[in-house]
Amino acid sequence: MRTDCDLDTPVPIWVIEHPETLSIFREHGIDDSCGGKSLRYACQQQNVAPEHILTILLSILKTDEHS
């Protein structure tokens, strides 16, 4: 499983590799398919701070890692 997801990782890869992140994308109106665009691009399209979303996503991954 890929663990190096970042702002340049396409959103679909985030969802495929870490399905637990899907709810965050939907909660913020970020299209989880978005034509394979990066997390950064998808966030900018929704006027959401990419770094904020990345922080949330990484915290979910860290929490799941310790579960």
Describe this structure in words.
The chain has one domain (11-65). The protein has helices at residues 11-17, 22-27, 39-45, 50-65. The protein contains four helices and no strands. α3 (39-45) crosses α4 (50-65). With 67 residues, the chain is mainly alpha-helical. The two termini are 16 Å apart. The radius of gyration is 11 Å and the shape is globular.
The SS-based structural class is: mainly alpha
Helix content: 40-55%
Number of DSSP E strands: 0
Write the H/E string, N to C: HHHH
Integer average pLDDT: 91
Rg calc: 11 Å
* Total DSSP helices: 4
Overall geometric form:
globular
Please state roughly what percent of the residues sit in beta strands, choosing from under 5%, 5-15%, 15-25%, 25-35%, 35-45% or over 45%.
Answer: under 5%
The end-to-end span amounts to: 16 Å
Q: What's the number of structural domains?
A: 1
Q: Ranges with pLDDT <50 over ≥5 residues?
A: none
Could you describe the largest sheet, including whether it forms a barrel?
Answer: none
Pfam families: ScdA_N (PF04405)
Provide a brief overview of the structure:
With 67 residues, the protein is an all-alpha fold. The protein is 54% helix and 0% strand.
Layout of SSEs?
Elements (H helix, E strand, L loop, with lengths): L10 H7 L4 H6 L11 H7 L4 H16 L2
Helix pairs in contact: 3-4
Key traits:
single chain, 67 residues, mainly alpha, globular, RIC_family
